[in-house]
Design a protein that fits this description.
The protein contains 9 helices and 6 strands, in the order E-H-E-H-H-H-H-H-E-H-E-E-H-E-H. It is of the alpha+beta class. The protein folds into 2 domains: 6-92, DNA polymerase, domain 1, CATH 1.10.150.20; 108-250, DNA polymerase, Y-family, little finger domain (Dna Ligase, domain 1), CATH 3.30.1490.100. Helix 1 (12-22) links the parallel strand 1 (6-8) and strand 2. The protein starts with 5 loop residues before the first strand and ends in a 12-residue tail after the last helix.
Length: 252
């Protein structure tokens, strides 16, 4: 079955901590009157925003638990840590005013694929990019949005990962411009390698999203035909499934 850990608490920070302590498959509830007894024995590294370096600094100051931090005046923490000191003082007291956003705005729409066999030829890589670009454009149109920046992720067999991005003159939601841009970006990433690379993973995404379809923007002369064709493909896929229609290039 599905393994889920759940934390219930008065605020976002405490709920996340409770969820972590409920792992791997449990439920932990922190009542308002039990916040400090739960929170103060925990190590300073459990405070939101405290990484390894900040934890080391706090420990050098003799602050090893969240309770230790709570016992220090906020002004003292601010002198030692700047604005972060004030934030830690609030968290150590169990105070977190950040709102819980159920549906945060989507920043990008993308697709990626890890290959069972590394890709080595230009044709293999191009076909994979075309397949991913088609998937991304379909997802954009299904949501009635478009984007202006095309992003590519390339992971090689040695797990080195490169990313490239390009912002276009206007928004796109069509396979052709996404693929053309992704292919050019991927070529640059691969050409930057000193040896002939073996590609383990490819990803394509579109960001700088707007809540309007690109087909409503001023189009190049041949783009209305693409828009109509892709709209028809979207309708067929919605009715018969994503594999009902595919690009001819991907059939061979």
């Amino acid at each position: 079955g599905l393994v889920v850990s759940v934390g219930l608490a008065p605020n976002k920070f405490l709920a996340k901590l409770a969820s972590r302590h409920a792992k791997p498959d449990g439920l932990l509830t922190i009542a308002p009157d039990a916040v400090l007894s739960f929170l103060h024995p925990l190590p300073v590294g459990d405070l939101w925003g405290v990484g390894e370096r900040t934890a080391e600094l706090l420990e050098r100051l003799g602050l090893r638990t969240i309770g230790d931090v709570a016992a220090v005046p906020a002004a003292t923490l601010q002198r030692a840590l700047g604005t972060m000191g004030g934030q830690l003082a609030k968290l150590a007291a169990g105070d977190d005013s950040r709102p819980v956003v159920a549906d945060p705005p989507r920043k990008s729409v993308g697709a990626e694929e890890t290959f069972e066999r590394d890709l080595v030829t230009v044709d293999e890589i191009a076909r994979a990019l075309l397949r991913l670009s088609d998937r991304v454009s379909s997802r954009l149109r299904s949501q009635g949005i478009s984007g202006q920046t095309v992003n590519v992720k390339v992971r090689f067999a040695n797990f080195v990962t490169l990313t490239r991005a390009k912002t276009l003159p206007r928004e796109v939601d069509s396979t052709a411009p996404i693929f053309a841009t992704a292919k050019a970006l991927c070529t640059k990433a691969i050409d930057s390698r000193s040896t002939s690379p073996r590609v383990r993973l490819l990803g394509v995404s579109v960001s700088q999203l707007g809540e309007w379809p690109a087909s409503e923007q001023i189009s190049l002369e041949d783009e209305p035909r693409w828009s109509a064709a892709e709209g028809a493909v979207d309708e067929i896929r919605a009715k018969f499934g994503d594999t009902a229609v595919t690009l001819g290039t991907l059939l061979s």
